[in-house]
Amino acid sequence: MTLNVLSVASEAFPLVKTGGLADVVGALPDALMPHGVATTTLIPGYPAVGKAVKGTRVVHRWAKLMDVEARLLSARIGEHPLLVLDAPALFARAGGLYGHADDWRRFAALSQAAAEIAGGAVPGLRFDLLHAHDWQAGLAPAYLRFRDAKAPPVASVMTVHNIAFQGQFGAEIFPALGLPADAFAIDGVEYYGGVGFLKGGLETADAITTVSPTYAAEIREGRFGMGLEGLIESRRGRVHGIVNGIDPAVWNPETDPALRSRYTARALGRRRANKRAVEAMFGLETGDGPIFTVISRLTWQKGMDVLVQCLDELVALGGRLALLGSGDAPLEAAFFAAAARHPGRIGVTIGYDEPLSHLLQGGADAILIPSRFEPCGLTQLYGLAYGCVPIVARTGGLADTVIDANEAALAAGVATGFQHGETGYHTLAHAIRRAIAAYARPDLWCTLQRNGMRADFSWAESGRRYADLYKSLTGAA
């Protein structure tokens, strides 16, 4: 029997993307299909989605969804069904996907629509389970929980991709949400006197997942739980850590069209052409020394302030840096200043460019990810797949996916990268020194690259675990 799941999120690759959330939401339908799960994805009707999706048809209308007119459009995303919440008053606007004054209304509308669709409000659409992703969809399980008690139950899963982003708003918005009065309570959406979108989802969903086992444990602690650690601890029996996967159809150095030269673990010499291309694009001196890359938001969470402090030493040791990212203005300025100090050794591109991110993975020698916390992380998985050796903090999914090149791991032939302890100058600088020393031993470096490239970080196992969880919640197991 096929299990029908409605997956609701604020973005999905390849239609619209600001980060790893989109990659996960876009990859899940393929990962679940072999396990008897049919996934329909619901996303907002941003202008970019309207341009990318063709052949839509209207399957439902709302005269007032959060006080605006809205339509539900049916389409396809690859081989799978797609639903688009077409509400121009909420989503057809300039600027980024997030950061608008009425974000609470925009994503409450998405959540309410998701709950109604999962609950059977649209003829011809039937779902066994609703899967909500991050705070933007966090109210969907709450709308399911607090709807008419006579309605048939629908199971729900709430996935936390990053608990730091919670969707907290003042209590004054509650009357507009259309939830019953008893939903504004500690076992509902109330959070420190206001409304918590993610908190509401975590409180009301039948199961909670995070994107790595280590992160699932970390968020039960005050340091990582961002104020929600008590709730997570109280529901620990319903919390599951499932590592994200990557899509080998998109991230594969043997077939990637963004690379100057495609290669395999047996033909690592072909990476050289990609390295030359990275040097040219970032204004780096041509050479055989290691190129480190950063593909990241430039924020405190990502440890970028500490990396800036380490750049003079990285260059002094013979390393170079190619950075692609954007974020906090002071950090952007600090990286530009480092590039000015070290012309030809540090190159900085502010922004995000999907093909360029592929080229960096295929041409740089190592990728730096010194995050203070990292729920899962995908860039280290891309690095492993492309032979771009990860240098990571020992936290969250980074700790779960990169095997440190310590003596025991090297002796066993299983090391894939370098881990360091709590993010700080000395720990990160030491990891960089270890990596540069290993790079000076070509046979050892090639072994690290090949070990990473041979690891299986596809969605096969993670898809099975999600499917098993769905089936346990719906009685289909």
Write a brief caption for the model:
Keywords: Glycogen biosynthesis, Glycosyltransferase, Transferase. With 477 residues, this protein is an alpha/beta fold.
Draw up the topology in text.
Elements: E1 3-8, H1 20-32, E2 37-44, H2 47-52, E3 57-65, E4 68-77, E5 80-86, H3 88-91, H4 103-118, E6 129-133, H5 139-145, E7 155-160, E8 168-169, E9 190-191, E10 194-196, H6 197-204, E11 207-210, H7 213-218, H8 222-225, H9 229-234, E12 239-241, H10 271-282, E13 291-298, H11 304-316, E14 320-327, H12 329-341, E15 346-350, H13 354-363, E16 366-369, H14 379-386, E17 389-393, H15 396-401, H16 407-412, E18 418-420, H17 425-439, H18 442-454, H19 460-474
Helix pairs in contact: 1-19, 4-5, 5-6, 10-13, 11-12, 11-17, 14-18
Kindly report the CATH topology of the largest domain: Rossmann fold
**Strand neighbour order, sheet with most strands:** 3-4-5-2-1-6-7-11-12
Q: What's the CATH class label of the largest domain?
A: Alpha Beta
Mean pLDDT: 96
Query: Residue ranges: pLDDT <50 for 5 or more in a row?
Result: none
Per DSSP E runs of 2 or more residues, the count of β-strands stands at: 18
Total number of distinct structural domains: 2
Number of alpha- plus pi-helical segments: 19
Pick out its properties.
477 residues; alpha/beta; Rossmann fold; 2 domains; 9-stranded mixed sheet; 19 helices; globular; EC 2.4.1.21; alpha-1,4-glucan glucosyltransferase (ADP-glucose donor) activity
Describe this structure in words.
The protein is built from 19 helices and 18 strands. It is of the alpha/beta class. It has two domains: 259 residues, Glycogen Phosphorylase B (Rossmann fold, 3-Layer(aba) Sandwich); 187 residues, Rossmann fold (3-Layer(aba) Sandwich). The strands form three sheets. The protein has a nine-stranded mixed beta sheet, sandwiched between helices. A hairpin with a 2-residue loop joins strand 4 and strand 5. Helix 1 packs across helix 19 and helix 4 packs across helix 5. The mean pLDDT is 96.
